[in-house]
Amino acid sequence: MKWLKRYAISCLIAMFVLAALDGYHRPGKDMRVGAIITVAAVWPIVAAIVVGSSVGEAARDMKQEKVG
Predict the structure, then answer these.
(1) Do residues 19 and 31 make contact, with C-beta atoms less than 8 angstroms apart?
(2) Are 22 and 39 in contact (CB under 8 A)?
(3) Residue 60 to residues 10, 13, 63, 67: CA-CA distances in angstroms?
(4) Is 68 or 10 the better-scoring residue by pLDDT?
(5) Which of 14, 48, 49, 57 could be bridged to 8 by S-S, CB 3.0 to 4.6 A?
(6) In this structure, what DSSP letter does residue 68 have?
(7) Cα–Cα distance list, 2 to 47, 49, 54 (Å)
(8) Distance from the Cα of residue 51 to its chain's centroid
(9) Domain range spanning residue 55?
(10) What's this model's pTM, rounded to 2 decimal places?
(11) How high is the pLDDT of residue 67?
(12) How many domains does the chain have?
């Protein structure tokens, strides 16, 4: 699952970068609603994937230590 976590983190970073670029190219104006909605919709999903996979890896490692 390491590739999934890397992919999720890179998607989160890309969303924030794209939203920042939207604000950079439109100085003095409000961000576009699409950029705001995209970042607002994506970050909770990405955070859940990262936290869930981290907890799963930790639980698996603890289980393997008890068995081994």
Answers:
(1) yes
(2) no
(3) 24, 27, 5, 11
(4) 10
(5) 49
(6) -
(7) 14, 11, 9
(8) 10
(9) 2-67
(10) 0.50
(11) 64
(12) 1
- Could you give the CA distance from residue 53 to residue 66 in angstroms, rounded to a whole number? 20
Residue bearing tokens 């230590």 = 65
Please say if the pLDDT value at position 17 is more than 70. yes
Q: What confidence score (pLDDT) does residue 68 get? A: 56
Give, rounded to a whole angstrom, the gap between the first and last alpha carbons of the chain.
22
- Hey, what amino acid is at 61? D
For the stretch 24-65, pLDDT in tens is 777 777 777 777 777 787 778 777 877 887 888 888 888 888
* Token digits of residue 34: 């699409």
When pLDDT is averaged across residues 3-23 and rounded to a whole number, the result is: 77
Cβ proximity of 1 and 56 under 8 Å: yes
